[in-house]
Design a protein that fits this description.
Family (chain B): Belongs to the metallo-beta-lactamase superfamily. RNA-metabolizing metallo-beta-lactamase-like family. INTS11 subfamily.
Largest sheet of chain A: 7 strands, mixed
Radius of gyration of chain A: 24 Å
Domain Beta-Casp (chain B): 245-363
Number of strands of chain A: 24
Domain Metallo-beta-lactamase (chain B): 16-229
Structural class of chain B: alpha/beta
Helix content of chain B: 25-40%
Largest sheet of chain B: 7 strands, mixed
Protein name (chain B): Integrator complex subunit 11
Distance between the termini of chain B: 41 Å
Helix content of chain A: 25-40%
Pfam families (chain B): Beta-Casp, IntS11_C, Lactamase_B_6, RMMBL
Strand order of the largest sheet of chain B: 6-5-4-3-2-1-22
Shape of chain B: elongated
Strand content of chain B: 25-35%
Number of helices of chain A: 15
Structural class of chain A: alpha/beta
Oligomer: heterodimer
Number of strands of chain B: 30
Distance between the termini of chain A: 40 Å
Chain lengths: 529, 590
């Protein structure tokens, strides 16, 4: 039994498990941090961004004026942003039988895998994962297609040339693998291969293997997976949370008795307490509004935003923000808010009880009804006429490279009254801000990552006692910047098996038995003798 | 041979009071716990004394599963759990769990507050009973205990209706509850995978009907309503608050919009608005079209349909009123009916099935003079129309489900005996499986034939493969040797060495021996050597060894030589071989 590791990103995994002659892909994460190397895509013509000088090497031998632009002391690629795909050469993707998705953030590379590779298998995901995943893909495509950029940049990717470029472009890896965003047609085709599953549903694969999703407590419909035969059991833990937020709590006990536990998607912010961050978020927001400034929250259109809105719902009155307009701008804002209300089965107990009354499980329904929260598909149209300041704007994309957020950066960046509050942990906020420097706007970093931290995970592992643990190599050593924090790594006995991009691991199994069936006629004879 | 037993306590050759007991693999399961709308006495509830005379039901039942929120499927629930006494798990889907207590409370109010009955369950009992409910998700495998597992499938019929697959080991039963094989305006069609249950217990309300297309019925319905309105009549549509009501509302809403009609449509108060909220929040349980468009336009927000007030019934002019309950046996629908029955311009449309004993049933059978409470009689002059909108599978649908699930046996409930008989014949003919239709209190027993799971040692398998090539090869059956161990309720097939080790037994070898006497003047050692050289020359292709301890071994046959005590020229050859060797030799000689 082998594990092929196609992604090096610990929270956006993509692994392939060969188990009992079935080939199972575990998640399909798309590493979007590559977009930080690109110039922002402005929705409205930006004189500043359109007049940037092209880049020529100091000695003048390399001239890439058309592809690379100098901005705020850094060099950016001037083309449609590209993503770093999972490795496609390590094994033949057409041999994959099934893809198991753990949550909607971990499926964004799906069209790259299922389309144009000869893939003929089935994708398994829960209904919220599919619906919200579809929305997030739609949003991504929309962000790109709204601001078409015909030109593509490839010369800088030449190894000889890339070597000469200034950092961080120089150090970017696998740039030849980077790809532009997929089209809506590819998204639809990819998602048509999804088969819906419910928690604890037992899905038989070819009669050889049984897979089953378990609640992981991280987001709506998020799941861990059990992959087992009669005598072997692999648990795949990806993006789990023990905090009480909106999703159904994590199912821990079903992970017991695993031969191998593959552990991915731990918190990216092991030192930031989500509750503390939420408090800081609220107080910074209130302070800015009181001083007459605007607040910009670059965020994903589903997930933590539901918790932020719920927190604000309780906070607005006490902080005297009753008249402040809250805007949520995204092509999928309305859908995301509506969809969140219809997944009662996938919510925590408190929210389920509300549905029984019947009331909407999330209080943002009331915020919308009382006109405190308004949502728009984009800054164009109704929003421009109804927009009042000071206000709070939730909008994407958190990388600040595309989406409506680019416009607000250009609009509000020059005033020190305004504040940008980062809540998503996926991007370094300094890198995200780089092309907008110098900024007068206040920047607050409150990353909220509810996934398991090292303390929680070691407790969990003690509880479920897997024989072996496999994890990204990042988890087997303390973070680079905090090398003395040995509490920020996994210490286990036996030590975890680390993997990195392109690793192929032999999984240790001690198989002793296999299941067969005796025909009833034969069993009668056995019983008689 | 193991058996599965099914006993209906209700719904056996009858519609109403669904309650079916199943015994499978040593587990007892109750399916549904309904009440009969046609009775006001003891016959209203299932006869739980069948299970136990005195003692709590908890000791006899492993779990109770409710298929959907209609009272003929869940109406006896608080009576059973709180008054008879049952503390075990009760399973139902989320929408059923949400809506069931509301209907129970509604029903309680009508029975206790309006009719003044005593000895009935209280509001608190409904609440206590609902606390014992564990919600089920579709397709989730719920482990009731180590051996019993249940899984719910979508059944259509009403919001949250489920079919359930019950499995113990390799034996299984599917219970359909009420289901619908064609999608309607608000719900999808029932679906189940090819789970091949030992018994499929199916409802058979419309066992003999093959209904015409839904479109025709809808057109008929709209035409009748429209005509009545045109001539200034009032239309009463008795419904249950949830289910058909929403489908017909969607139908009328779109019709009113298209025809630009002005006559008011009312929906009896209270429950309705709430009901529509349930539909909005559980939209994932509706049909695909509604789910797909709900963000843009929620089908359950009605523009033309307004809340009804009792005083409106006397308003002049045409109107359409949806009122509960659906069989005209009590409540608001009955009140309005009494008011409007005397005018032939008015119309009542019965959109669903009515059980015997209800006024709905009587007027559908053409009765024109009704005896009301207190000896008063009521002349029924208004038009009575029946439109089968209730979402049950018809004969075609039932056959379709059998094709989907491929059961080994079929069992019909929730239907009338005569109609069942007809369908039973059809099923037996078309699928060549046995079909049963037990009456209430009658037990059907089905013998099952499950395979026995065994864990085979991988070492043993590998050894077999090394000996005779990969396993299994369907074209070449072959014998393999192993030992079957039964331990802690599980079976293992291992090599005999391992079996001995695990069981702590000494190995006893069975060997065959014989003595051969021959005359040879040489020393013992020489004789042996001569035998050795002779065998070597004769038996080509066998392993023959001459060991220093004075033995010759041919494969596993041991040969020793000793001299007779009397005569040193008479040599005694000792031969010894194991019984396996006999087999080997036999094999080779073939």
């Amino acid at each position: 039994m082998k594990l092929y590791c196609l992604s090096g990103h610990p929270t956006l995994p993509c692994n392939v498990l060969k188990f009992k002659s079935t080939t199972i892909m575990l998640d399909c994460g798309l590493d979007t941090t590559s977009v930080l190397n690109f110039l922002p895509l402005p929705l409205v013509h930006s004189p500043r961004l359109s007049k940037l000088p092209g880049w020529v090497s100091k000695d003048g031998t390399i001239n890439l004026e058309k592809e690379l632009k100098e901005c705020a002391g850094r060099v950016f690629v001037d083309a449609q942003p590209e993503f770093c795909l999972p490795e496609r050469e390590l094994l033949d993707l057409s041999t994959i039988d099934v893809i198991l998705i753990s949550n909607y953030h971990c499926m964004m590379a799906l069209p790259y895998i299922t389309e144009h590779t000869g893939f003929t298998g089935t994708v398994y995901a829960t209904e919220p994962t599919l619906q919200i995943g579809r929305l997030l893909m739609e949003e991504l495509v929309n962000f790109m297609e709204r601001v078409p950029k015909a030109q593509s940049a490839t010369s800088w990717k030449n190894k000889e040339i890339q070597r000469m470029l200034p950092g961080p472009l120089k150090d970017a890896v696998d740039v030849w693998m980077w790809k532009r965003c997929y089209s809506m047609q590819e998204v639809n085709s990819a998602l048509s291969k999804v088969q819906l599953v419910g928690y604890s549903q037992k899905v038989e694969l070819f009669g050889a293997v049984q897979v089953s999703p378990l609640s992981s407590g991280y987001s709506l419909g998020s799941s861990n997976w059990i992959i087992q035969s009669h005598h072997e059991k692999v648990s795949y833990v990806s993006g789990s949370s023990l905090l009480t937020t909106h999703p159904q709590p994590m199912d821990q006990s079903s992970l017991k008795n695993s031969d191998v536990l593959i552990l991915t998607g731990l918190t990216q912010m092991p030192t930031a307490n989500p509750d503390g961050m939420l408090g800081e978020f609220c107080s910074n927001l209130a302070m800015t509004i009181r001083a007459g400034g605007n607040v910009l929250v670059p965020c994903y259109s589903s997930g933590v935003i539901y918790d932020l809105l719920e927190c604000l719902y309780q906070f607005i009155e006490s902080a005297n923000l009753g008249t402040t307009p809250f805007y949520f701008i995204s092509p999928i804002a309305n859908s995301s808010l509506e969809f969140s209300q219809i997944f009662a089965e996938w919510l925590c107990h408190n929210k389920q009880t509300k549905v029984y009354l019947p009331e909407p499980p999330f209080p943002h329904a009331e915020l919308i009804q009382t006109n405190k929260l308004k949502h728009y598909p984009s800054i164009h149209g109704d929003f421009s006429s109804e927009f009042r300041q000071p206000c709070v704007v939730f909008t994407g994309h958190p990388s600040l490279r595309f989406g409506d957020v680019v416009h607000f950066m250009e609009l509000w960046g020059k005033s020190s009254l305004n504040t940008i509050i980062f809540t998503e942990p996926d991007f370094s906020y300094l890198d995200a801000l780089a092309p907008y420097q110098p900024l007068a706007m206040k920047c607050v970093y409150c990353p909220i990552d509810t996934r398991l931290n090292f303390h929680q995970v070691s407790k969990l592992l003690k509880e479920v006692q897997p024989l072996h643990v496999v994890c990204p190599e990042q988890y087997t050593q303390p973070p680079l910047t905090q090398s003395h924090r040995s509490d920020l790594m996994l210490e286990l006995q036996p030590p975890p098996m680390p993997y990195r991009r392109c690793s192929v691991l032999n999984l240790p199994f001690r198989r002793r038995y296999e299941r067969i069936y005796i025909l009833p006629e034969c069993a009668v004879i056995v019983a008689l003798t | 041979m193991p058996e599965i037993k099914v006993t209906p306590l209700g719904a056996g050759q009858d519609v109403g009071r669904s309650c079916i007991l199943v015994s499978i693999g040593g587990k007892n399961i109750m399916l549904d716990c309904g009440m009969h709308m046609g009775y006001n006495d003891d016959r209203r509830f299932p006869d739980f004394s069948y299970i136990t005379q005195n003692g709590r039901l908890t000791d006899f039942l492993d779990c109770l599963i409710i298929s959907h929120f209609h009272l003929d499927h869940c109406g006896a629930l608080p009576y059973m759990s709180e008054m008879v006494g049952y503390d075990g798990p009760i399973y139902m889907t989320h929408p059923t769990k949400a809506i069931c207590p509301i209907l129970l409370e509604d029903f309680r109010k009508i029975t206790v507050d309006k009719k003044g009955e005593t000895n009935f369950f209280t509001s608190q009992m409904i609440k206590d009973c609902m606390k014992k409910v564990i919600p089920l998700n579709l397709h989730q495998t719920v482990q009731v205990d180590d051996e019993l597992e249940i899984k719910a499938y979508y059944a259509g019929h009403v919001l949250g209706a489920a079919m359930v697959h019950i499995k113990v080991g390799s034996e299984s039963v599917v219970y359909t509850g009420d289901y619908n094989m064609t999608p309607d305006r608000h719900l999808g069609a029932a679906w189940i995978d090819k789970c091949r249950p030992d018994i499929l217990i199916s409802e058979s309300t419309y066992a003999t009907t093959i209904r015409d297309s839904k479109r025709c019925r809808e057109r008929d319905f709209l035409k009748k309503v429209h005509e009545s309105i045109e001539r200034g009549g009032k239309v009463l549509i008795p419904v249950f608050a949830l289910g058909r009501a929403q489908e017909l509302c969607i139908l009328l809403e779109t019709f009113w919009e298209r025809m630009n009609l002005k006559a008011p449509i009312y929906f009896s108060t209270g429950l309705t608005e709430k009901a529509n909220h349930y539909y909005k929040l559980f939209i994932t349980w509706t049909n695909q079209k509604i789910r797909k468009t709900f963000v843009q336009r929620n089908m359950f927000e009605f523009k033309h349909i307004k809340a009804f007030d009792r005083s409106y019934a006397d308003n002049p002019g045409p109107m359409v009123v949806f009122a509960t309950p659906g069989m005209l046996h009590a409540g608001q629908s009955l009140q309005i009916f009494k008011k409007w029955a005397g005018n032939e311009k008015n119309m009542v449309i019965m959109p669903g099935y009515c059980v015997q004993g209800t006024i709905g049933h009587k007027i559908l059978n053409g009765q024109r003079k009704l005896e009301m409470e207190g000896r008063a009689t009521l002349d029924v002059k208004l038009q009575v129309e029946y439109m089968s909108f209730s979402a049950h599978a018809d004969a075609k649908g039932i056959m379709q489900l059998i094709r989907m699930a491929e059961p080994r046996n079929m069992l019909l409930v929730h239907g009338e005996a005569v109609k069942m008989e007809f369908l039973k014949g059809k099923i037996e003919q078309e699928f060549s499986i046995d079909c049963y239709m037990p009456a209430n209190g009658e037990t059907t027993t089905v013998t099952t034939n499950p395979s026995v799971p065994v864990d085979i040692s991988l070492n043993l398998l590998k050894r077999e493969m090394a000996l005779g090539g990969p396993l299994p090869d369907p074209k070449k059956p072959r014998t393999m040797h192993g030992t079957l161990i039964m331990k802690e309720n599980s079976l293992k097939l291992v090599s005999s060495e391992q079996a001995l080790k695990e069981l702590g037994l000494n190995e006893h070898q069975l060997r065959f021996t014989c003595h051969v006497q021959l005359q040879d003047p040489h020393s013992d050692a020489d004789t042996l050597h001569r035998i050795y050289t002779h065998l070597k020359s004769v038996l080509k292709g066998y392993t023959i060894q001459h060991l220093p301890d004075g033995t010759v071994i041919v494969e596993s046959i041991v040969i020793k030589v000793s001299s007779s005590a009397e005569d040193s020229n008479t040599k005694v050859l000792l031969l010894s071989w194991s019984y396996q060797e006999v087999l080997n030799i036999l094999k080779r000689s073939k």
